[in-house]
Amino acid sequence: MMPLPTDFLLGTAQSLATVSEAEQRMLLRTGAVLPSPEELQRFMQFVRAVVFPGFYDQRTSSSDTRLFHTGVAVEQIYSILCRQIARGFVFCREQGAESGISALANSLAERFVTELPEIKRLVLTDVEAVALRDPAVSNYGEVVLSYPCIMEMLHHRTAHALYRLGVPVIPRMIAEQAHSLTGIDIHPAAQIGEYFSIDHGTGVVIGETTVIGNRVMLYQGVTLGAKNFQYDSEGRPMDLPRHPVIEDRVTIYSNASILGRVRIGHDSVIGGNVWITRDVPPGSRITQSGPVVEREFADGSGI
Amino acid sequence: MMPLPTDFLLGTAQSLATVSEAEQRMLLRTGAVLPSPEELQRFMQFVRAVVFPGFYDQRTSSSDTRLFHTGVAVEQIYSILCRQIARGFVFCREQGAESGISALANSLAERFVTELPEIKRLVLTDVEAVALRDPAVSNYGEVVLSYPCIMEMLHHRTAHALYRLGVPVIPRMIAEQAHSLTGIDIHPAAQIGEYFSIDHGTGVVIGETTVIGNRVMLYQGVTLGAKNFQYDSEGRPMDLPRHPVIEDRVTIYSNASILGRVRIGHDSVIGGNVWITRDVPPGSRITQSGPVVEREFADGSGI
Amino acid sequence: MMPLPTDFLLGTAQSLATVSEAEQRMLLRTGAVLPSPEELQRFMQFVRAVVFPGFYDQRTSSSDTRLFHTGVAVEQIYSILCRQIARGFVFCREQGAESGISALANSLAERFVTELPEIKRLVLTDVEAVALRDPAVSNYGEVVLSYPCIMEMLHHRTAHALYRLGVPVIPRMIAEQAHSLTGIDIHPAAQIGEYFSIDHGTGVVIGETTVIGNRVMLYQGVTLGAKNFQYDSEGRPMDLPRHPVIEDRVTIYSNASILGRVRIGHDSVIGGNVWITRDVPPGSRITQSGPVVEREFADGSGI
Amino acid sequence: MMPLPTDFLLGTAQSLATVSEAEQRMLLRTGAVLPSPEELQRFMQFVRAVVFPGFYDQRTSSSDTRLFHTGVAVEQIYSILCRQIARGFVFCREQGAESGISALANSLAERFVTELPEIKRLVLTDVEAVALRDPAVSNYGEVVLSYPCIMEMLHHRTAHALYRLGVPVIPRMIAEQAHSLTGIDIHPAAQIGEYFSIDHGTGVVIGETTVIGNRVMLYQGVTLGAKNFQYDSEGRPMDLPRHPVIEDRVTIYSNASILGRVRIGHDSVIGGNVWITRDVPPGSRITQSGPVVEREFADGSGI
Amino acid sequence: MMPLPTDFLLGTAQSLATVSEAEQRMLLRTGAVLPSPEELQRFMQFVRAVVFPGFYDQRTSSSDTRLFHTGVAVEQIYSILCRQIARGFVFCREQGAESGISALANSLAERFVTELPEIKRLVLTDVEAVALRDPAVSNYGEVVLSYPCIMEMLHHRTAHALYRLGVPVIPRMIAEQAHSLTGIDIHPAAQIGEYFSIDHGTGVVIGETTVIGNRVMLYQGVTLGAKNFQYDSEGRPMDLPRHPVIEDRVTIYSNASILGRVRIGHDSVIGGNVWITRDVPPGSRITQSGPVVEREFADGSGI
Amino acid sequence: MMPLPTDFLLGTAQSLATVSEAEQRMLLRTGAVLPSPEELQRFMQFVRAVVFPGFYDQRTSSSDTRLFHTGVAVEQIYSILCRQIARGFVFCREQGAESGISALANSLAERFVTELPEIKRLVLTDVEAVALRDPAVSNYGEVVLSYPCIMEMLHHRTAHALYRLGVPVIPRMIAEQAHSLTGIDIHPAAQIGEYFSIDHGTGVVIGETTVIGNRVMLYQGVTLGAKNFQYDSEGRPMDLPRHPVIEDRVTIYSNASILGRVRIGHDSVIGGNVWITRDVPPGSRITQSGPVVEREFADGSGI
Fold this sequence. Notes:
serine acetyltransferase, domain 1, 42% helix, 8 helices, five-stranded parallel beta sheet, alpha/beta, homohexamer, UDP N-Acetylglucosamine Acyltransferase, domain 1
């Protein structure tokens, strides 16, 4: 391999290192250190170890030593959060306003720690919901080990707790890590009740202002999305409630799309592949408009 | 960063370490060590090396030394399986019945090893099926290196062999690892014939009791799912045949959903986005019921 | 664990190491070393560091030292490419034609380096497009850190540049790595204009001969696919233009499928879940054919 | 690179894999798994973390959470030891006698755990001894972080406790790991009192039956060795007391050699480079026999 | 493996976690984070890359890109030092005096960067000295790659520069890392002139207040040590000049010991195994006092 | 942390990147890639696995699969050597003479492979020699796992075989890696017979032209060195035989120095700390010249 000529390399590097006008808008503050994706993964591993002790740490599941492991995990959760929240604030703030960031980050991290028992309680309801709904489940432990829904909800309930505390950027990064693993995309701001379950899950999208009740079940490919945006006077889309409200005990089958600030009444069942843009009363059964018709393709092609 | 106060930390840890009633149901046996996701990944790497020698081990593909590498890989496959199957049984069994687990695990691992040549043969038919169907393929090796379908089928055919041997939990964990990588979710119990291919694949779901013939091809987003469950006298869903039977040489286009124990006759073509809940005779061509109509949105909104 | 008997192991290994007729077709050249997925991941990390300096390298984002880091990254990009492109050629070529591969690989790697500033410019337009369309975005940096669309386009614009230079295999491997991370599957040959954005993204498929204009936006599950193939005289599918042309400023909502060499006119809006197989004039608004009808399921089942 | 011819490779491998008569004597039991050097390194890291909390774990040294970290470390120490001691017994025993190994290993591991507080107390006396003797020491922490003597004694006092419990092989492996790091070679059986220190240390050798009192100090290159062996009737060297007894408060300067079962009386000082093979009364001052004489080399050479 | 009983584990952990009186003296400040041995190893790797570009970074030694690599390495050297020096001050200071530590650390790190060219110049003189003295050397590069003397001097000249800047703890940690690798123990405060070389090196000790001129050569096992200490009124050893002064062009053969504040005149040669405690005039040739005598051992033993 | 000013950083980097006259002499060829220490460590791990199957690879020591593991290890040994030997030649040669390096490297690597059985045979004699001489040995396996002598001889016998094949640089690098681990420094050119053993070993030095017979034993700190050099007409030291010849069955006790091309007759015993510079007849017993005298230190000091 012949090395690149110095001049060529220098020229390319200078061209790339020059800050264009477009880049100017996304320029970071001098000296800022970004939240670390790797650290957030470690953070989630500790949350997971606290919620499912004995499952994910490759050791025997002795309840005798659970207290010690939990104590260490909680301390790690706290100390990683302190650093990453502080980075998140530096990342998002205007130049200048730095004083007090560290104290604020510590305080939010401590408040998150107090949320952990509730996060654990909620995720355990999700495990139970999956186990009750899927005849392929042979025991609860199998649900924990191999259902993407549980991995997703562990992340979402954590990200949502951080979102409600006002932590910037980090909830979104945690949500995206779960999305990459599971193919399920839940905005951290979405409100989701207990005993929530998703089967298979790939392609599910749950938007920012969605509100979901208790004991709701979704299948793969379901979209709870926005229909359109309203724009403010400067032409920017406005961040208003624009995603559905799903009431208790609703089931939504695969690839259904529910769009806009509509309300799906409790105990409804939404069939697969339907497209809903208005309210549905409680107890409804919705399916595609017409029967599927068999037709020979006129042109004999594959479609 | 100020450390958390001892009392606060101790209180939180105790709250988290206490076993709630809900958690009781998923409690592990004392001393049990769970199947290790990391070890199962190593296991799959050895299976991959055996099925595609020279492709995945970063060395030259000398056929001269293939026998040695294969021997070592087979030994690793066997010894990892011995340990993980034993863990799987401990994980799933009732308290008490432990004697004989080790001998059973060894015996199942050995039987899996005898399945390897057939697994290899089947996956190679899948490579061939992909290569024949996709005009973008320039050579067979490219299919191995860059088609998620092949990664998926390598996992599925392995998981299915383990499932048929009665190995608990582990087939499901292997399937979920493939799901996370490819977005394709195939239950390990699903029966799939030779020369199977999936294009793109994201969002494909193939349920537990599905039966698929030879030379079937699917596109992304296809669901082969259950329509509904029957419940037993205790209100638990029953594990009966409830997913489709797809006969030989069927092609199913993107985002089609076929639900329930229906039969798609051989040589049929199912169009994209259709929703099928009853049998389809051999040689059928199915497409959406009506033509797509262009309409101006009344409200001029984005939808 | 009892070791496997020697004879059993030897027999299994020989059976597996024997080259079947099917395997013959995918046999690698003796001595060939395949392109390394791990090296291509390192390659993409350097591309990412060059496009988003300060974001992905866990250091402070000092602009003072940007030139040095860029220079080192460019050198790494070049030297990894030299090796991997050469491997790609060996992988794809007929037996025999090896002379000149190294010089050709170096020359293509150097030409790729000259494309880097344009790749950077294009990806920055994508960041801007996302930021302008999504009301949940609070700053540009958040888009870079947590939107799968950006990760995808970083890979696609890189893979596409390599594709246009005639580099074999490697563009496809890079595309598949992005697909696994994001659930978005874009063929490296697809042509995509500037200010492109995808929201959520899981399940999006963009085929090989697709042409997309500027400022186009897609939602999750959109398929820009082929309708059917034409076959050549030997029965192999022909690699002709068979995917859509999407003109400037088109928006396509979730799970829509546009199939075949059709043209979607500029400034059109395609609604969710529609299925389009013919041209659409500029400025169109397309939605599903009929209104969704609420029906009680006759059988009271879940669907 | 041309691959090796199959026959050549096979021949070499067979030649190497054949068990010669010499190798027969060191053959391992079928199925035995050896003690793992890597696991023993992890074990020592946990011992170190218990003895010097806050020093070696890269976290803040909060005493608030010390109890949790200690509990986890002790559990790890116990569980690693259970496995490794069992492997050690399998490694050393005659074919056949395997039953009960696991219970014995667990029991010894538990007894080792009860020794940990005393090991910690003793190593802290060594830290104090170093700090009091070396004028270059500025604080106690510096001794912990940068004196090889402390690293050595942490290993020795651990290895010695295991030796006294009758654990096979493992004490020797731990001792050798310290030897490689520090150049100090102490046999695990050597008995060493409290407040022990070694300065610099490279080349120090302390033999198997050595007995050392309290507050003894050694310099680099000191040998406390055997003079000769007695042989048993089969010509094998006998394992009798054959190394020195060093009483309290003795100082031995660099490169001195004390050989055989001799007694160095308390409060003696042994000068550098001397060679002692008989008893020395308490309070002695020993130095080289004659003064150093300056001489011109007769041949003008460098020596 | 049976888990340890909770009470037993708790009792042991409490016993270990209790701070004894002895431990009180080495207690760290609450919240202090210690200097990281791993980070200091990374630091030394960057120093090495700057001093020997092309040797240690596994890439081609293109001089074309040397400037970029050097710039990045210098930035890393600076930023690691900023953090570690600050930790070193926190580690060593009394409770309370923390303000200004960060600014001081940055300033010292910057001053160290200005010393790098001189460190590089000096280490290159050591390479030249080795190459000139050893007939087994075939080229300069071999000296860099395989002589422990060069590894040692790279560390010492770095540690010494930090020592002279008043950096606490860290010079000692760097020196000890070299000691563990090479068996050569040089105190960071020792002053050593240019063109210094050590052959083999194991067991060499060079004390804190040693002063060594230019073109000095040592062999293995040489001690430049203290003879005894003077104690202050509180009985603590005083940190006065107490190690030798070695003038220009002196050679000292293996295992020689030179002790106390004595002066070895320029151009002297000190023979192996001698013991010197007083001044030696320039141009001396010193060897052992008497000839070696052959004697039969009276007792016929091995010694 | 404030970033360094650009100008300051640029200035320092330029100063460091400038090639001084001294550096000119050790400049590498443009494009040369150096032998990799990490690869040579991997190489030695494979050699170790071949010599001691079952000991070092953390798997069960089943003789059933030994042939497979050996075959794979031999292939790895060969392929690593091919690359590293070629790098070694590029590193050492004059500019220009590159053609044929690759073929030469392959040929030497193949010849090394044929030496492996003899290397294994010799190292096993060393294991036996240690086991027979040390009463602390309880079984042969313990010698393999925990005696630095065996680690050293594994490296030396490998490095010596490469040296005799004319491989440049690499033998020296392997020898230095062993030196760092064991404190024993043996030049790869030294000739050593079978059944060789070293006890403890730290500080042992064996020079380039040393010749050692069979069944020789050394203790720690022994030097087999050169007395002085002869210089050629250009003032460079000449590479002539200048180290001792040690005949069969000689034992040399700790810290003895034998210097120059002298011959120690077979069956001799050399006592500790002696200094020998002339021939010793067979069967000799050599010890220090005079008895050790006890003296009070005149000044009451510590020496």
